[in-house]
Amino acid sequence: MQVKASFKESLVGAIPNLRAFAVTLTGNVDRADDLVQETLVKAWSKSDSYEEGTHLHAWLFTILRNTFYSEFRKRKREVEDTDGSIVAKLSSHAEQTGKMDLVDFKAALTQLPPDQREALILVGASGFTCEEASVICGCAVGTIKSRVNRARAKLTQILDVESGDDFGPDPTAQAILSTNLSDAKAV
Amino acid sequence: MEMTSDEQAGGDKGRGAVRGKLSTDAQDKIGEKLRGMYETVATEPIPEKFLDLLKSLEEAEQGQKRDDE
C-alpha cells in the first residue's frame, strides 16, 4: 500500500504537465481534461506495468497520446469539418495585423497534422529529448526530428512569421490548411 | 536545424519558409509562443476533480482488498 501511495503522489505531481500536453495537443481544455482523466484511470489500473525508477512522465505521456490517437481516429470518422471558417478567420486576421498573437498561434497549432504537433510539443515545450520523444511516440528518432522540422516550417508559413514581404497568401499553405481540417473543430 | 532527407522527400515544396533553413527568428518566436501556452496551463493549480478521482480510485482499491480478505 505504501508503494501505491507514493505512486499516487507521483501521478499528482505529473498532472500539470499532462494537462499542458493535452491542452496544446487538442487545443481544447475540456477535451484535454477528459484525456488527462482517462490517462490517470489507465495509469492507475496499469500501475503494475510501470517500472519503478523509469521515466514516469514519459510513461504517462505515452498513455495520454495513445488515448488521444484512438479518440482522434474515432472523431475523424464522426466529424468531417468541411467548413473552413476557422482557417478563413485565421488568415484574414494574420493579413490584417501582420503579426502573430496567441489566438493565431493556438489556431495554427491545431492545423498541423497531429503527429507533427505532438513532436513539436514534446521536444519544444515538454522538455523531452528527441530520443525520449521517439520512445513516447513509438517511432525513430529521425522521424521525430523530421516532424519537428515540418511542424516549424508549416507554422511559420501559416502564421507568416517571416518578414512576409516576399510572399503573400501562399498556395502551399492554403493546400495544407484545406487538407487538415478534420481536427479544426477542436479550436 | 537542418532539413532531413525524409523531409525533402515528403513533398513540402512550398515557397519561403520551407525552402532551406527557417530563420532563427521565426523558430524563436514559435518556440516562445508554444512554451508560453504550455507553461500557462502547467502552472495552473491542479483541478480538484483530478485529486478526487485519484482518491476514489485509491479508496475503491482498498475496499476491494478488504472484501478479498
From TrEMBL, chain A:
Extract the InterPro entries matched here. RNA_pol_sigma-70-like, RNA_pol_sigma-70_dom, RNA_pol_sigma70_ECF_CS, RNA_pol_sigma70_r2, RNA_pol_sigma70_r4_t2, RNA_pol_sigma_r2, RNA_pol_sigma_r3/r4-like, WH-like_DNA-bd_sf
**RNA polymerase sigma-70 region domain boundaries:** 16-77
As given in the record, the signal peptide range reads none
One of the record's GO molecular function terms: sigma factor activity
Per the record, the domain of life is: Bacteria
The reply on keyword S-adenosyl-L-methionine is: no
Which GO BP terms sit in this record? Answer: DNA-templated transcription initiation
Pfam families in the record: Sigma70_r2, Sigma70_r4_2
What UniProt keywords apply to this chain's record, in alphabetical order?
DNA-binding, Sigma factor, Transcription, Transcription regulation
Q: So what family is this one in?
A: Belongs to the sigma-70 factor family. ECF subfamily.
UniProt name for this protein: RNA polymerase sigma factor
Q: Which PANTHER family match?
A: RNA POLYMERASE ECF-TYPE SIGMA FACTO, RNA POLYMERASE SIGMA FACTOR RFAY-RELATED
Q: Which organism is it from?
A: Denitrobaculum tricleocarpae
Q: Does the keyword Cell membrane apply?
A: no
The segment(s) forming the RNA polymerase sigma factor 70 region 4 type domain are 105-155
